[in-house]
Amino acid sequence: MSEERSLNFIEEIVEEDIRNGKNDGRVLTRFPPEPNGYLHIGHAKSICLNFGLAQKYNGKTNLRFDDTNPSTEETEYVDSIKTDVKWLGFNWDKELYSSDYFDQLFDFAVALISKGLAYVDDSTAEEIAASKGTPTEPGKPTPNRDRSIEENLQLFNEMKDGVYPDGAKVLRAKIDLANSNMHLRDPLMYRIKWAHHHRTGDKWCIYPMYDFAHGQSDSIEEITHSICTLEFIPHRPLYEWFIDQLNIFPSKQYEFARLNMTYTVMSKRKLLQLVNEKHVTGWDDPRMPTISGLRRRGYTPLSIRNFCEKIGVAKRENIIDVSLLEFCIREDLNKSAWRRMAVLDPIKLVITNYPEGQTEILIGENNPEAEDGEGNRDIPFTNEMWIEREDFMEIPPKKFFRLGVGLSVRLKHAYIVKCDSFVKDESGNVTEIHCTYFPESKSGSDTSGISVKGTIHWVSAQNAKTAEIRLYDRLFKVEDLSIEEGDFKNYINQDSLQVIKNAFVEPDLLNALNQKSINEHIRYQFIRKGYFALDDDSTPENLVFNRIVTLKDAWTKK
RNA sequence: UGCCCGAUAGUAUAAAGGUAGUACGACUGUUUUUGGUGCAGUUUGUCCAGGUUCGAAUCCUGGUCGGGCAACCA
Q1: Rounded to an integer, what distance in angstroms lies between the CA atom of residue A78 and that of residue A205?
Q2: Can you give the distance from the CA of residue A125 to the C1' of nucleotide B2 in angstroms?
Q3: What CATH number did the domain enclosing A113 receive?
């Protein structure tokens, strides 16, 4: 057997279960989102874990919507969740809903009442909260705790039949009001909610609580490993209590630490707030940590799966540096993205010894990382160019490998040019750079003998196409939002979006829209500027590119 | 002053009583027609105090620190 990557603690549990022949070696996991928001990168961790486990151990994974609270859930979210899971590259075995089990769950509740293990309580929410005591003081029974089984049965049926208004009664498990675990102090099983459900419509006016739905749903599906996040640890005894009392399939719950990431938030509540209060343009704003946001930004499914692999799975609270996510997308795109040239902050460069009106077609390979370069594209070369303003300096510092009077650089895929002079306007801004080129220095057939330190990108001014380019920075100004005081919105980075309306791109990029229609090569590396993805806002008249991430830059750091 | 979970380089994650390793970050060199990539290297760590043991990141005891738990949310 060859050297294997070490297992995370859940894989160890699964392997041990398989060794022991538990569940006949069967592995069935589930990904159980509540359809009340869009999925984010933290969900991706859970998705990769659940589906990954199944793939690794010959099992299956169900997609189950935990839809027990009709007032927050919508079909829109169901659809987006399915889209995102598929996009990440996973296929579920069954698409299921907790609401599929409402009848069964009702019968389970009746069974518990019949065993004297559940009762209908007429107390208000406040009264119940008060009667539960505190972590250090035991709770006290409410007046209804000792109702007869018959009465409970009748009342519960009346709850279901719509006899009572919202909040009038609840069904509670009869466990232990003094338990040190607050979740065991007679937890609520059902509440009355006259709300329209996105799937069951108006059939029900009572809905099960999470604790009386999740474990039972796992059990009904015969889930072997029910994986959730750390905050559910105190629920586990309750999860097991219901399964024991009902004597149904013993699914087991395991908990891991959720993902946190620097410079962003990861709670649906906060993300919803950013959307509702228009701090971002929507759930799929490219600055959002949502799957749809990352997708629109240009992240690939592979890069996200690799990221989830690298961050590992453990029980320790963590905050992952967003630079690891950035590493993952660079790693993927460096190998696959086609190279193009784009000038974001243009300044004119004039080649004084190149014939005006002449156009030469140069060849550039699409992908230098591929053996065959994945083909070439034509790049027109003329006497006037757009180059990046930052690639010229009036007074260049030492080790500045770009342009300044007397300095030479190679124009990528083209010739070496030497800067002779520059032109300024009245206010002192440089408006033009004048160079001479060396005809023998043509890329690929250079016989000039000249060697230069720098190579810069450019676009022929006569042939350039304009494009809109959107540059994104971190959404928040601080690394770890969880340790900051006050409203998280105080830390929003107001400069997280920069729109460049008139960038110049090489003409071949007009093909980007066609490429997109065949779903290929919609992501590019703009040489020296980063990785970019064509945005859905693009039209043939106005191409829009999102910067996914910059290239690593060892120069500007200095 | 309850119960539960956790603690290994800056950030994560391994080492199941026997050499503290890996990735990202940072830094250095090298290659390069992208100051990218690649390649080579450097850097930084077991929360504390006791105990068990030939030997402890690992087991035990006590402490410290961080997190969670008292929604008719999930």
Answers
A1: 22
A2: 23
A3: 3.40.50.620
- Per-residue model confidence (pLDDT) at position A522: 86
Q: 3-class SS at A334?
A: helix
Q: Which nucleotides of B are covered by protein (CB under 7 A)?
A: 1-8, 10-16, 21, 23-27, 33-38, 66-74
For the residues of A376-440, what is the DSSP string, one character each?
EEEEEE-SEEEEEGGGB-SSPPTT--SBSTT-EEEETTS-EEEEEEEEE-TTS-EEEEEEEE-GG
Question: Residue A445 maps to which CATH number?
Answer: 2.40.240.10
Host domain of residue A481: 268-338+467-549
Residues of A recognised as catalytic: 34, 258, 268
Q: Which of residues 387-406 of A touch strand B (CB under 7 A)?
A: 399-402
Question: Which nucleotide lies nearest residue A401, CA to C1'?
Answer: B35
What's the CA angle centered on A218, arms A192 and A106, to 5 degrees?
30
Range A141-164 average pLDDT:
97
Position A448, amino acid: S
Q: Is the CB of A124 under 7 A from strand B?
A: yes
Split at pLDDT 50, 70, 90, the class of A513 is confident
* pLDDT tens, position by position, A194-208: 999 999 999 999 999
In this predicted model, which residue has the larger pLDDT, A186 or A371? A186
Report the pLDDT averaged over residues A541-547.
Answer: 95
Residue A554 resides in a domain: no
Domain boundary among A203, A229, A256: A256
Q: Chain A, 440-459: which CBs lie within 7 Å of strand B?
A: 442-444, 446, 454-456
Q: Which nucleotide lies at the shortest CA–C1' distance from A311?
A: B12
Nearest nt to the CA of A409 via C1' is B33
Q: Which of A227, A256, A285 is the last residue of a domain?
A: A256
- DSSP H helices in A20-74: 41-56
Mean pLDDT score across all residues of chain A: 95
pLDDT digits (tens, 9 = 90+) for A515-526: 776 666 689 999
Asked if pLDDT for residue A442 goes beyond 90, the answer is: yes
